Amino acid sequence: MSMQKKPQMVEAVVFFNDRGVCKEMLYPEFEALLDNVVQMPEYADQQMRLAYVLINSRLMVRAVVFFYLDFDEKGEADRGWNLPLRNLADRAGRGPDMGAGPIRLACRSQCPVSWHQMHLWDPSLDSGNNHLVQLRDAVKRNHLGVLVEEETAAVEPQRLQMAAEHQWYAPAEESREEAEKLARAMLEEHQQKTAAMLGQHETRLSQISQQHEQELSRLKMGAQEQIKVLQAEVAALRDGLAREEEINASLRRELDGQVSGFQRGREELTAQLRHIEQSGRDELEQLRQQIEDEAKARIVSLEARYKEQISIRDVELSYRNELDQQLQHENQQFRQEAERLREEVAQLRQQAEHARQAAESLRQELATVSSRAADGSMLERLSALGVIFVVYHPGAGHLTLALQDVARYQENPMAFAASKCFVSEDQYRQWLAHYQQPSCEGRLSNGERCAMPIDRVETPGRFVDGDSNCCARHKTSGRLRSVTSG
What we know:
It is a single chain. The protein is an alpha+beta fold. Among the domains are: 10-149, no CATH class; 288-384; 391-485, no CATH class. 57% of the residues lie in helices and 11% in strands. It is built from 9 helices and 8 strands. The protein has helices spanning 27-34, 85-91, 131-141, 172-315, 320-384, 406-411, 413-420, 425-436, 472-485, and strands spanning 10-17, 20-26, 47-55, 61-70, 93-97, 102-106, 389-393, 397-401. The strands form 2 sheets. Strands 2-1-3-4-6-5 form a 6-stranded mixed beta sheet, sandwiched between helices. A two-stranded antiparallel sheet has the order 7-8. A hairpin with a 2-residue loop joins strand 1 and strand 2 (20-26). Helix 4 (172-315) runs antiparallel to helix 5 (320-384) and helix 7 (413-420) packs across helix 8 (425-436). It is elongated, with a radius of gyration of 62 Å. It starts with 9 loop residues before the first strand and ends with a helix.
């Protein structure tokens, strides 16, 4: 009696895309793909989802490993890929029942080797896109040409023998035994289906738990990074606040010092002004008193003179009749003299008013001088505090002014800058006009300015009027004119 050879398990690899199974191949073909004997340009520069499948002789799936494979821009498989698919399939855990009992399933959420977990992916178990159902249907279609185990041949009807009618029914005891066997079989089938459903639920729960753990880890990492960023920002803000507080404290101290200095200067100036006002009042009072004394002395002398003349007249009363005309004439002269004296007193009073006005103008001049002195003292205090006076002039650059040079610079900044460049003020002004607008100063035949752009002379010492500020044509004409005139 000859023994029929039983077909062995078949290894295959199935490709998935968004629509489901897109390609199937036997494992030897997959090894040729890994060795880059063949390429797949349709998968160039992509990461594909694949499944390693063990198929029995009845086209039933017995083990599945879901894994990733990368392809380069030429469609060649990743040369560094090295995943032990057979080992993972042998060591995989229980999965759902796909028709021949629970399968062995290896995926990201159920990986027997932890360091290969990153190279695996979890299948979807949704009703509309169930990767296990798609895989089962693809295997059933048998596009790979797997050898199928032959079913037991049915007995032809003519070879069947009809038993007697009284033998159609088995005894009650046999019927009870068959019923018990059937019940046990149904119970076993129900237990297997229950175990398969539990396996599916465990797989789904494991996937959900894995996804939740990954999401929780990602959120924790994001929160930690955000906390670090916020802590860094808070530290930076605290440092900035501390620096600002230090700067504000130093500025407040400096401002307090300046305010106290200004207050002292104001008090000194007020005291000087009061002294000057008091001195002016004293001088004015002295001048007024002197004028009044002089006027009183003149009046006293005039009164004494008048009294003397009156006494003389009383003595010479007897002679008045003779000298009446002469006395009247003298009296008129005396009156004119008195009027003149009164005019002189008025003039003296006007001179006193002019003197008071002169004292007021002197007080104003003294206030101006005090203000300038205060400005000078302010500059001296700023210089003592370390303040440096710096000005900028083209050609001379940044110039540091000494305290004694500030007044000379204020009088004529252009001359000061020219002296620093070792040129005259006129040459510096001509060079500055050329530096600000480097164009030809020559005149055209119609009298208009040439204004052609020319190269700029960077330093005043190299500037020559009529040469540096003219284009080549006007330089040549200027030289010819100078030669002809010579």
